[in-house]
Amino acid sequence: MAGVLPVRRIALIGLGVGAVTAAVSYVAPHGLSATLAGAGGAATAVGVQVGVWARDAARRLGLA
User: Fold this and answer.
1) Residue among 23, 49, 51 at smallest CA distance from 36
2) pTM (2 decimals)?
């Protein structure tokens, strides 16, 4: 069960950040909403690439 808790925490943090971003985008002007969406997409792409890089680096070093 201990292995499931980090996934639950990550999911709850993601849900919270997503809800706050959605609320801000809902009340903000269109330009600001588009900027937030673009920044969020860029941050997601960078996060995925860093995750893939870290996984590959750990495999090369024999850590995974």
Assistant:
1) 23
2) 0.66
User: 27-64, pLDDT tens digit by residue?
Assistant: 999 999 999 999 999 999 999 999 999 999 999 999 87
Domain that holds residue 9: 4-60
**Helix, strand, coil % (nearest 5) of the chain?**
85, 0, 15
| pLDDT tens digits, one per residue of 26-35 | 999 999 999 9
Residues 6+ apart with CB under 8 A from 25: 32, 33, 36, 37
First-to-last alpha carbon distance for the chain, in angstroms, is 21
